[in-house]
Structure formats: C-alpha cells, structure tokens
Amino acid sequence: MNDLASRIDHTLLKAEATEADVAKIVDEAIQHHFASVCINPVFVRQVAAALDGSGVKTCTVIGFPLGANTARIKATEATEAIERGADEIDIVAHLPYLLAADANAAYSELQQIATAARVARSDVIIKVIVESAALMANVDDATADARITAACAAIRDAGCDFIKTSTGFHPAGGATTLAVQTMAMHADGIKIKASGGIRTREDAQNMIDAGADRLGCSAGVAIVTGGAGTAGY
C-alpha cells in the first residue's frame, strides 16, 4: 500500500457534487487505498454501502463550512451521520471561540457534540476543523500561538482525535506548514489533519514532514500518481 495514499481523506465537498461524482471518488479511493472518502452528509449512506468491506473509511463533515450552528444541531447532525454509516466525522468548530482563544467555550461546544457522537458509535473518529489560516492571519506570533494552543486544549479535553487545519472554503486560506508545525508543538496526544490547498505530492510531503498525520485532499489521485490537482474541494 502506498503510505502516502493511506494518509489521504479523498474529498469531495462541492455543493454541486452529484451521486455520480461521489461514486467516482469512491472507486478512486478503493483503487488507491486512501484512508477515507470525505463527502457531505447527504451522501453518507451511499458511500458507506459502496465502501463496505474495502478497508476505506466513510468520513463526513458536521456544521460545514461555517461552524455557526448550535452545538445541539451539530450533535444531532453527527448522530445522524454516524447512524447512516459514517466512520469519521470532521466538525467545524465555532470560530469566534477560537479567535478569542477561549478554550473553555470551545471545549463546551465540542464536548457536547463528541458525547453525542460516542453514544451513537463509541469508536467513531472525531476531527475538529479550526480554520488555522484565520487564526494566524494579521496577528503577532504570540496571539496566533495562543489561539492554536487553546484549540488544541479544547479538542483534547473534549475527547476528540484530530485537530484539522481548514475547511478549504474560508477566504483566509487553507493549510500551511507553519500552522501544522504550530499544532504539532501543542497537540499533546491529538493527531493533526492538514487540508485546504494540498494539490501536489510535494505539498503533501511537506505537510507530513511538518507533523500532519492525515491529509484532506480533493486532488488525491494526482498526488499519489505524481501529478497536480486543481483548486477546490
């Protein structure tokens, strides 16, 4: 198995994605042995059925892409996704909590969602999207570090498994090696998923070298075959 492929969540989150588009990336994920297929919740049942027995996981997003729903709504969304067959959920955290470096408020939200998710399935993998580019933009290093530190603490204390850089939809941008390196300094038991703007094998390897355990990519096939993908999820 290609070790790089085994780290990639093969991703399609565009609003215009069709069932046929999703079926195509499922086939690609099975062929290349990607870690998971990451799709919007409406496609979870389709993807879980198609991936059954393949070894590739079904991943979906919660509160995507703004993270602006209430914790109760996100918890309900997570529960339904898991009941439909999701193995992994990527939750968009409420960004204002993280911009304020308010670890307690972020924890309160994430703990409510994670608790509901674990009731639905105890071994579900939970990743939390923090929009690292927004956290680190136009502030000094100390402020950026404090925001990432607070995010890591909230995610860890809430019992989640990964901190994830980006939705890929925020205007501030996607993953950077600096963001991943900063997360790695404060992760302390949680893993790191880099996503947003990773389009080449070099991009992917740079993120792994910086400390990423998993990669979210719409260009997964191009990456593992040595090509270059286009922008967007």
Topology diagram in text:
Elements: E1 8-12, H1 19-32, E2 36-39, H2 44-51, E3 57-62, H3 71-83, E4 88-92, H4 95-99, H5 103-120, E5 125-129, H6 132-136, H7 141-157, E6 162-164, H8 177-186, E7 191-195, H9 201-210, E8 214-217, H10 220-225
Parallel strand pairs: 1-2, 1-8, 2-3, 3-4, 4-5, 5-6, 6-7, 7-8
Helix pairs in contact: 1-2, 3-5, 5-7, 7-8
Structure description:
The protein has helices at residues 19-32, 44-51, 71-83, 95-99, 103-120, 132-136, 141-157, 177-186, 201-210, 220-225; strands spanning 8-12, 36-39, 57-62, 88-92, 125-129, 162-164, 191-195, 214-217. The chain starts with 7 loop residues before the first strand and ends in an 8-residue tail after the last helix. The chain has 233 residues and is of the alpha/beta class. Strands 1-2-3-4-5-6-7-8 form an eight-stranded parallel β-barrel, surrounded by seven helices. The longest helix is centred in the middle third of the chain and has 18 residues, at 103-120. The protein has ten helices and eight strands. 45% of the residues lie in helices and 16% in strands. It has a single domain (5-225), classed as TIM Barrel. Strand 3, helix 3 and strand 4 (88-92) form a beta-alpha-beta unit. Helix 1 (19-32) runs parallel beside helix 2 (44-51), helix 3 runs parallel beside helix 5 (103-120) and helix 5 (103-120) runs parallel beside helix 7.
